Amino acid sequence: MKDIFVEVVFNLPINQTFSYRVPQELSRVQPGMRVLVPFGNQFLTGVVVMKRDRPGFPNPKDVVDVLDELPLITEKMMQLTRWVSEYYLSSWGQALFLALPRGIEEAVKEKVFLLKDLPDDTLTQRQRELFLVIAENPGNTKAYYRKKFGYSSFYNLLNILKKKGFVYFEQEYIEAQARELFRQFVHINEDYPQLKEKFPDFLKYLKRRPEIDAYMSERLGQDILKSKFLEETRMSPPTLAKMCRYGLCQQITKKVERRIHFEDVEEPKIVKLTDEQTAAIKAVEPNIEKEAFATFLIHGVTGSGKTQVYIEVLKKVLARGKTAIILIPEIALTPQTVRRFKKVVGDEIAIFHSKMSLGERLDYWHACYEGRIQCVVGPRSALFAPLDNLGLIVVDEEHEHTYKQTEINPHYNARDVAIYWARMNNAVVLLGSATPSLESYYNALNKKYALIEMKKRIDDVQMPAVEIIDMRRAKKVGQGELRLFSQLLIDKINERLSKKEQVILLQNRRGFSAFEQCSECGFIPICPNCDISLTYHAHGEKLQCHLCGYTIPAYQFCPNCGGRQIVYKGTGTQRIEKALLEVIPHARVLRMDRDTTRGKRSHETILQAFAEGRADILLGTQMIAKGLDFGRVTLVGVISADVGLSIPDFRAPERIFQLLTQVAGRAGRRQKVGEVMVQTYSYSHYAIQFARTHDYAGFFKEELNHRKNFRYPPFVRLIQILVLHKDFMETVNKTREIAHKLKAPLAKYAQVLGPAPGIIQRMNNLHRWVVTLKLNPQTDPTGKITKSILLQKLGSALEKKKKNQQILVDVDPITLN
DNA sequence: AGCACGCCGACT
DNA sequence: GTCGGCGTGCTC
Ligand SMILES: [Zn+2]
Ligand SMILES: [Zn+2]
C-alpha cells in the first residue's frame, strides 16, 4: 500500500505549508479538515490544504489525529483565504483561520512543574527569580511564564533550572476553548401510561400528586431539560431516579444549541416603498435573477430607507433558496436593526456580535455549516461564515473604518474582500452609505459598480441646517478655557435647556499629534508634497510631515496673516466639561469618553440615563455620533472641527465630512427638525462648507482633485511598512535601511516615501516609524509586483516579533500609520 | 509563534 | 570556564 501525505497550515505567521504522512487508519482525511500534528516539541491543530501521494518534505512526521468527519473549509473558501493572504501579505494559515470558529484549536504543550519547594544557593540571582515566578503558580505552559518573566534569557534560564533538577516538563493535552454544550434531559417513555400500572407504590404517589401524572401523560416521548422538569413538577431527585429505575422515563445527555433570543416586535405597519426604493430594488433585481455578480453602490441620505432596500432584496434572494451575509459596523448592530432582519428571515438567521461567547459562536458557526442558517448578520468577521449557495452580501455604511482589521493579521478590509467573495460566488453586493468612501464612489462613476442614488428622506423631514460658527470672529464666552465656546453656541444651549430639551456636544478624540493653527486666520501648516498637516514637535521646535519626512522650523508667526500662532492639541472632554460647567453651572452634564466607559455596561448605562432625561447635555467623543437617536435632542454641537481636520491623514477632510453629515442626519430624525452647530477656525475649508450644504457631489469633486494632485487613493494604491522598536535611534535606522533597500528594486513600480515618524509616534513603549509606498498604477496596477519585491527584500523579517522590534505591513491602509 | 543554538562580552 | 543577553534560523 502506498502512503499518502498532506500539506498543513497553522494559525501562525509562517507563510508555508508543512508535510505530514497519513497513517493508514486516518486515510479518510481530506483537504479542509483539521488535524492534530507534531510541530517542534508540541502538537498543534492545523488545517489540511492538500492531499497528495508524495511527501513535500523528506521524512515527514505522522498526523496524530484527524479532528473532523467532514471538511470544515470548502475548496472555494480555501481559494478566498489564499487570495486574502496573498493580497494582505499574511500567512495562508492566519487567513484560513478566519473561516473557522474561534477557539477550536486543540494542542499538546509542555507545562512546567516543580521538583523542589525552595530555591537554594546553587542558583544564581536570575535563576532564583525565574524559579519564584514558576513557584507562584506551577503547572502552566512555558509561554505563560515567559510572559510573566520576560523574554530575555527565559529559555536559557528555564533549561538551567531543569538541568539542575528544580523543575521538570511534562506534555499536557490542552483542549479547545470553544466547546459544545451538553445538558441533562429527562426523556419520558412512550409506554408510560401502561407501565405505571405495574408499580403500586408509584400509583400511590400519583394519587397524592395527580398533576404529575398529567404532566407526564402530556409529554410522552418528549425530552425535557432536567432542571426544568424538576422545577415544573416540584419532584425530588430521588423520585426521578426511582422513576428511571422503573423505566417510566430516562435521563439522557444531549447537545444543546446556544441561540440568542430576541423578543418579537409587534407586526410592523405594512411599509409602502418610496419611488426611490422601488427603483433601487428594480435595478438590483435582474442580477439576483440571473445570479450574476455585480456590485451596487447605494448612495442614500440618512433616512432615505436603505435598510428597507436591503430587506426587500434579501427577501428575493432567500426566496430563490440562496443565502445572504449582511455586514454592519459593530456600533450599529443595535437590537432595532437586528429585529428588522430577524422579522424577515425568521429563525434561520445568525447574528454575530463582539460580546458573544466562544460557545455561542461555535454553535452558530455549525448551524451555518449545516445549512440551517439562511442569513448571517454581523461585523467584518461574519463575511467568512460557512454559507453555501451565497447570493447576496450587503455592506452597510461601507465607508466605515471598522471593516478594516488593524490589530491582528491579516489586515483585511471586509468591504473589499466581500466583493471578491461575491464574484467567486456569482453573488450580488450592495454597498450602502450616506457618505460613500471616495474609492467606492469613484468606482461607481467609472462603472465598476452600479450607482443607485436615493436623495429623498422617507419622512420628508428636511435635513437640519448645519450652522458653521467661525471661531476666528465669533464672540467667545470668556478668556482661557472659556475661549472654547462661542457665545452663540452657549446661547443656543441655554435656550434648549430652558425648554427642557436636550443637547449633544461632540468633541473629536484627542489627536495623537500636536499641530499648529493660527487663531487669527485658521491657517494650518501643510506639507507641500503630501497635502497633509504637519505635526508639531516641541523637541527642536519643528514641524514634520509624517509621510515624506519633510521638516521645517515651527512658525512663530502665521505666514499667512502674520498673526500670533497657537499650538493646539485638542482639548479632552474632561476639560470641556469643566469649562462648560463654569459657563452653565446648573447644567446636568453626562460625559461619555474612554474614561467613563471603561466598565462593561457603562456605555448603555450612560445612554439610558440620558434617554431617561436624567441629564441635559451629553458630552462625548465621536462614539456617540452613531447608532442612537434621542427624541428630546434638538441641538447637536461640535465643539471643534479642527482637531479632526488637522489629523495628518489625507482622509481627514473625508472623515470630517462624514462626521458632520452623519450628525446632521441623526439630528434631523423624528418629527422635530434638529439643529447642528459646528465651531471651527477653518471656516472656509471645503469639507466643512460642503457638509453645511449637504453637498456630497461637490465634496467628492473637490476631494477627488486633491487625491489626484497628490497621488492618493483611488488613483494609487498605498502600502505602509511600519517599524516598531524600543530604541528611538534603532527605529529610525531600521526604517531608513528598509526604505533604502526598497528604493532601487521598486524604482519602476512604486514611489518610496520616508522614513518618517508614524502618526502615533510611540505606543506600548515602542517607537513607530513608517515607510509609505505609492504604487505606480501604470507599471504595477494590481500591486502584485511590489508585493513580491517586498517579500523578497524584507522576507522573513516581516511580521516576525523579535525581542525589541517588529515590522508590520499594511496594504491599503484606511488610516495612515 | 515558540523554541533551540551559538556567539560574545562579562564576571566569577 | 559559566552566565546570560541577543540575533538567527528552524519547525514537516
Ligand atoms: Zn493667520
Ligand atoms: Zn510630506
Automatic annotation (TrEMBL):
Look up the EC number in the record and give it. 5.6.2.4
Give this protein's Gene Ontology molecular function annotations: 3'-5' DNA helicase activity; ATP binding; DNA binding; hydrolase activity; zinc ion binding
Gene3D superfamilies according to UniProt: P-loop containing nucleotide triphosphate hydrolases, PriA, 3(prime) DNA-binding domain
The Helicase ATP-binding domain extends over: 287-454
Question: Which domain of life does this protein belong to?
Answer: Bacteria
**Record's GO cellular component, any one?**
primosome complex
The UniProt record gives the binding positions of Zn(2+) 2 as C527, C530, C545, C548
The alphabetized list of GO BP terms reads:
DNA recombination; DNA replication initiation; DNA replication, synthesis of primer; double-strand break repair
Q: Which residues form the signal peptide?
A: none
Q: How does it assemble?
A: Component of the replication restart primosome.
Name of the protein in its database record: Replication restart protein PriA
Q: Which organism is it from?
A: Caldithrix abyssi DSM 13497
The major lineage groups are: Bacteria, Pseudomonadati, Calditrichota, Calditrichia, Calditrichales
